[in-house]
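Quick note —
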Amino acid sequence: MKKPNLVFILTDDQGAWALGRETPEIITPHLDKLAEEGVCFENFFCASPVCSPARCSLATGRLPSAHGVHDWLRGGNVTGSALPEELRPAYGQDTAADYLSGMPTVYDALREAGYHMGFVGKWHMGDSLRPREGFDEWTVLLGGGCAYKHPDISVDGVPQYRNEYVTDFFTDRAVHFIDNHPDEPFSLHLHYTAPHTPWGHEHHREDILRLYDDCPFACHPFHPLHPDQVATCEVGDTEEHRRYLLKGYYAAITAVDEGVGRVMDALRRNGLDDNTVVVFSGDNGMNLGQHGVWGKGNGTYPQNMYDSSVKVPFIVWGPEYVRRGAVVNNLVSHCDVLPTLREFLGQPVHTAPDDMLPGESFLDELTKGRGPTERKICILDEYGPVRMIRTRRWKYVHEGINGGHQLYDLESDPGEEINRFGDPGCAEIQAALSAELESAFRAYTQPPFDGAKTRPTGSGQMGPIRKEGDDVFHPQVLYFRDCHHGV
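Predicted structure written out below.
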């Protein structure tokens, strides 16, 4: 059997709950079918609940404290002076930076395996205009977000605005890539911007919006806003506005689902469906009213680590390579993807003495299946000095900004409503998790990137950390309560 093709589809701000199989109000028939025919992970976690750090961890297998990206990249995406005149106002004096310089990635593993590689969509890990080494085709969003119907994109090396619905445009490019490479092993990375804001209805396709005209949006009832809600996201602060934003968010997901269906049709049309592995995931979770939060980890300040912020969908489909119709409940992380890919490709899981990674391969879950297991290291997440460690039952959040640490018993309190930190009855587990978190970050942190010594606000990272103590984060913290009252 020849080497399988690989298609990796990544969405932006899609929580694990945001699939039809989890939230029946959301229309995702193609993704639901992908899960039914492949392997669906019920407990899959990002490494940081915001896009750029999460994507860098997915690419490198490292925690943010080992790759140095601790907030979404406000700077370093492109060199503004290299853009056409019409694009320069959006990027000002920005200078492109290579945030992953010198770090082995999933892309390097695929290049070494001899794949023809294509990238379509949102990169947001620095230097968007320069194709990452190994990529043969590169169609990329210039920054981290865009207007859905007027995106700024580099197409075949030419930066430009496109008056096309961005989700459909990315799908078109992905299908074109598949149609033009039916005979050589390829690796296609399709990174949608959806369902990231904006959710205003003028940004989305009317035919898809109409599908939700009669939706009750009952899956996420209205809750009072979290007291630490910040103005980094569109906020459903009234029942009417909540329903309006949910409609836009759901429509953005359904457009992605339609695109996934078209990609699968292209594989079948070219006779590639029996020799292709398709992976679908989101970069980080998302709250649309859960816990009173709108946004992901930076929906609040201090940042939050709710499961709705850190759990993401993860589906693997490939009739000849993975189990059919399997559901995995073991705890797995984006940091595990690189070790898994290396094992799948027959490469050493660790490629160098200093290639110490917190992840472990989950290939057995894909191919053989295995019962409930406890990881050598529990699931870890971080957003600057806010850090989380999670077992199947317990979650400990070390909040290194104001000291508002949290401990949740997820067995009796799956909604994370009762903070047991400081409860004498939980002293033993609290001490154990705190010690394990400290030990893990000590083992997997690489200077000068220690997140405990940074202060990201959730308003963006301006450039690379080059030495310990670099202040590279946008300082703004604007609480919604102040903005809302015009203060």
